[in-house]
Structures are given as C-alpha cells and as structure tokens.
Write a structure and sequence with these properties.
Blueprint lengths: L6 E3 L2 E3 L6 E5 L6 E6 L3 H18 L4 H17 L1 H12 L3 H21 L6 E2 L7 E9 L2 E5 L7 H12 L3 E5 L5 H13 L7 E3 L4 H10 L3 E7 L2 H12 L4 E5 L4 E5 L5 H13 L9 E7 H17 L18 H17 L2 E4 L3 E2 L9 E2 L2 E4 L6 H4 L6 E7 L2 H9 L3 E2 L1 E5 L3 H10 L4 E4 L15 E2 L11 H5 L1 E9 L12
Parallel strand pairs: 7-8, 7-10, 8-9, 10-11, 12-13, 12-20, 13-18, 17-18, 20-21
Antiparallel strand pairs: 1-2, 3-4, 5-6, 6-23, 14-17, 15-16, 19-22
The protein binds adenosine-5'-diphosphate.
Adenosine-5'-diphosphate (ADP) binds next to helix 7 and helix 8.
Length: about 500
C-alpha cells in the first residue's frame, strides 16, 4: 500500500487540516512513491506558532550546545548517506554519485555550522569615551521560513536551516512538492540528533497555498528562498508588505569561456560535467559555451561525441550518466526551448528530443542537446532553460567573451579555460558573477565560501560561508558605561 506521510509540527505528526494530500512520483519510472499533506494556511499557522513558541527557549540554549546538535546531525547524515542518496535518486532522478554529493554538502554544512556554535563572531572595538566599552554581537531573529527547490533536496535545506539554527532561530520548512521525502528524512534526523521539539517544523505542499501562507504570515521574520527568479520576485514583493527579511537564491545562465590557448581536453571534461550533470538542472549549470572562434571546431570535435556517448537512464543504475528531468512540465519546457532555438536560426548539433523508448518510456528523459551558431541575444542564450541544453557562441577576444558573459539578466557563476595568467587576472576582475572558476566548469561550490550571484540571481544576500550567517542574525550593539557619570558621545565638552 502506498504510504501517506504527515507534516511535523510542534513535535507531532499531523495530517493537513483539510485532509488533502498530493502524490510524489519517481521521475525515472513514473512510480508512485507516496502521498504528502497538502497544507494550507491553517497548517502553516500551526507550524509558525510552534516555531514561535520554541524560539523563546531555543534562543537561550548556548550556541555551543546548538552546535553540538549539528555535529550529531553531521554524524547521522554520514551514517545515512547511502540511504538518503538512494531515496533522492528515486525522488528527483539525478545519478547516485550526485545524490551522494548532495548529502555530503549537508554533512559539510553540519560540521561547518556546528563549529560556528563556538564562534558566531561579533567584535569589540575601542570607544571614544573613557570607562566605557562596546561590543557588537549577533542575535537570532525569530521564525525563519525556508522555501526550497527540488534540485538539491538535502543540501539546500541544510544551507538554510543549519546557519539559522546555530544562530538560535527556529524554522518552518516548506520543501518543493517534487522532493518532500528527502526533506522529511532530514527533519527526522535533526530530531534524532536531539533537537528540541518545535525548533524545526515541516509543512508540505505547493507554492500556493502552502508557500503563500508562509510568506504572508506576520510571525515569520525571515524568508530564505531558492527557486526561479519569477517566483523569487513575487516572494520578495509579498514579504516586503510585512518587512520580512528576504534572502533569494534564483536563476543562472552560466557560461564557460574557452580561449584559444586553453587545454581543450580539460575543457571538455568541465563542460560535460557542468552542462549535463544533474541533466542541467543546477542553478550553476553551464548553459552557454563561449568559445574562441579559432578553436571552436576543434573543441566541438572532441565534445560532441562525448555528449552523444552520455548514457541516459535511471540514476540508480551505475552505468547511467544522465538521469531524467524532474517532471513532465520541465520536459516540455526544455523541448520548447529546442524549438525556439531552431526557430531563431541556431544549428541543432545533437540531441533535441524527448526519449520515449524502452526502459526510458515512463520517465522524463531528454537527450543531451547542443546548439551552435548561437547569437548572444537569442532566447536560448538569454533565458534559463534548466535542462541539458548547451548553446555555443563563437567569440573573437577575451573582451568580447566577458561582455557576452555579463550581458545577461543573471550573474551566478562563470568559468574560463586559459593558460594565460594575464587573462586569468582580467577575467577575475571583469566577470560580473558571484562565483568564478579558473580552469574548471561552472559548478562545484564549497560550503565554506559565500554562494550566490549578482543581478537577477539574487537580492544581495549570500548563502553558506560566514556570509550565510548574516541572513539569519541581527546585529546588536551593547555600550557599557562604567564611568559612573553621564558621558555624551559626539558632544564637545
Ligand atoms: P522551480 O521552477 O525550481 O520549481 P519555483 O520557484 O517554482 O521553482 O519553486 C521553488 C520553491 O518555491 C518551491 O518550494 C515552490 O513550492 C515554492 N513556491 C512556488 N510558488 C510560490 C509562491 N507563490 N509562494 C511561495 N512559495 C512558492
């Protein structure tokens, strides 16, 4: 019998108050994996209330103790890495190696933020009056609403929850409707590690009504969102009504630049991994290849056969290189972009089709796709496709490559292949993205650095690294005057 799962609110497993559920499917096989509660305003209100209540105690737990719980979460994630990776592959399709990597990011974040329990650095600096001191410290903010996508179903919730938790906030997590089970297992492990009840609450459901209820709830102080730029903009506008702090991590249209002096074999590896890994469904995925005209054909001669050899299939099969897309809607969207590219006059070199044959018949599989003769202003070169589609644009100089790279509404990640140190310096200075890779592809961020991007990719915040704490803490400054008399700052005596 198909299992029906529940929300976890205030330490209790609960159905949606309406009794409604939604199904969860395996994108590779079409298999029904379970039903999850379709939560509405009432369920979200219950979760926020539980989080609000838990906050008053959790904020008083010494940060090193909060950090110790995260260390135990890290240990549990290690112990359950394989189980979680398999669950994730079944739920969202990417291959086991990548789902293991996804869990590993959660492990890394658990230890990193666990360590912050004994740091959470503020600072003390000299003050201008005698017998007085000043210290700036980080305070938790309150209830954090985490709205997460399906492409990194463990990693992204940990990126949001672990810094928020170590800083003393409490949480309502609304995971993507395509990957509810991974989020549920993560929350179970948090409690197994000793988290007090009510500190993390999980409500399942779609953007509307579940996400909407969260962004509009007056007792939610912070919204940390990862998803599409369109939805993120809506979240920011709506949450602004109640002056919530909103951190947005959104789309990308990331480019790999290959100069004429590049190691082409190395570039091929980086392009394959960052363009077709996770079937292109990463916000850092490479979807534009800006290649120097003089090496374009040589590069494509090496690259195209490798793309054609990528094996599509169920991610649980070790032979598989590329899993399915997340759902039918996304499959249709990716294919629509193939038609758009052809209509715009780009040349389809390989791929460009939905695969319906044999073992793949029931899944959402799309052939890894490459277009050449793409102009920078074409829609396939400007819009986020979120699929295995790579657009090749010929460039004649580094300056042109940088201009094309930057002339886009997103600014997450970029990469350059060159052996020339001066070009590296120039590219590092001028590529206007939040992340730059030298001689590797556009993916592979590590959790100890700030993650995020410029322009339409974000709204100025960063996740991960020390910068990740800023979203979840409020600065509090304490002046302590021990002079025993009224001292006036800035006033001439
Ligand atoms: P994707 O295209 O990656 O699914 P979305 O931006 O639609 O990106 O979804 C990312 C997350 O935002 C998901 O958890 C989704 O349910 C949620 N979401 C979608 N629409 C809304 C909304 N109107 N309000 C709040 N959350 C939403």
């Amino acid at each position: 019998m198909t299992q029906t799962f529940k929300n976890y609110i205030g330490g209790k497993w609960q159905d949606a108050s309406s009794g409604k559920t939604f199904p969860n499917y395996n994108p590779a096989t079409g298999e029904l994996l379970g039903y999850f509660p379709l939560s509405d305003q009432d369920d979200v209100h219950a979760a926020v209330t539980a989080a609000r209540t838990a906050f008053e105690k959790w904020r008083l737990v010494p940060a090193p103790k909060r950090g110790e719980i995260l260390y135990r979460v890290g240990e549990l994630l290690i112990r359950h890495k394989e189980e979680l990776a398999r669950l994730m592959t079944q739920e969202m399709g990417k291959v086991l190696k990548e789902t293991q990597g996804d869990v590993q990011e959660g492990i890394d974040m658990a230890y990193y933020m666990g360590g912050e329990g004994r740091r959470l650095f503020g600072y003390s600096v000299p003050v201008e009056l005698p017998n007085k001191s000043g210290v700036a410290m980080r305070d938790p903010i309150g209830v954090v609403g985490c709205i997460t996508p399906w492409n990194f179903p463990i990693a992204i919730p940990t990126w949001k929850m672990f810094p928020a938790l170590v800083a003393g906030n409490t949480i309502v997590l609304k995971p993507a409707e395509d990957t509810p089970h991974c989020a549920l297992r993560l929350v179970e492990l948090l409690y197994e590690a000793g988290l007090p009840e009510g500190v993390v609450n999980i409500v399942f459901g779609p953007g509307n009504p579940t996400g909407e209820a969260l962004i509009h709830h007056p007792d939610v102080a912070v919204i940390s969102f990862t998803g599409s730029t369109e939805t993120g903009r809506h979240v920011a506008v709506e949450a602004a009504q109640s002056l919530k702090r909103v951190s947005l991590e959104m789309g990308g249209k990331n480019a790999v630049i290959v100069m004429e002096d590049a190691d082409l074999d190395l570039a091929v590896e980086g392009i394959l991994w960052s363009a077709y890994g996770t079937s292109g469904q990463r916000c850092t995925a490479c979807s534009r290849l800006l290649v120097h005209r003089s090496v374009q054909e040589a590069l494509l001669e090496k690259l195209v056969p490798r793309i054609e050899r990528l094996r599509l299939g169920n991610g649980l099969d070790e032979q598989t290189d590329v899993g399915p897309l997340i759902n039918e809607k996304q499959l249709q969207k990716v294919h629509a972009y193939t038609e758009i590219g052809q209509a715009e006059g780009a040349t389809l070199v390989t791929g460009g089709e939905i695969t319906r044959g044999g073992d793949l018949a029931k899944g959402h599989f799309y052939r890894p796709t490459l277009f050449k003769h793409v102009r920078p202003d074409m829609r396939i070169a400007q819009e986020e496709i979120f699929g295995p589609t790579l657009s090749v644009i010929a460039i004649d100089s580094l300056e042109e490559a940088i201009a094309v790279n930057n002339n886009i509404k997103y600014g997450l990640s970029s990469a350059i292949y060159t052996q020339n140190i001066n070009r590296v310096q120039q590219a590092t200075r001028d590529l206007a993205t939040g992340i730059i890779y030298i001689n590797s592809g556009t993916t592979g961020a590590e959790i100890q650095f700030p993650f995020g991007g410029t322009r339409g990719t974000g709204n100025g915040h960063r996740e991960a690294g020390l910068a990740g704490l800023d979203v979840f803490t409020e600065w509090k400054v304490v002046y302590n005057d021990y002079s025993g008399r009224l001292q006036k700052a800035q006033i001439d005596e």
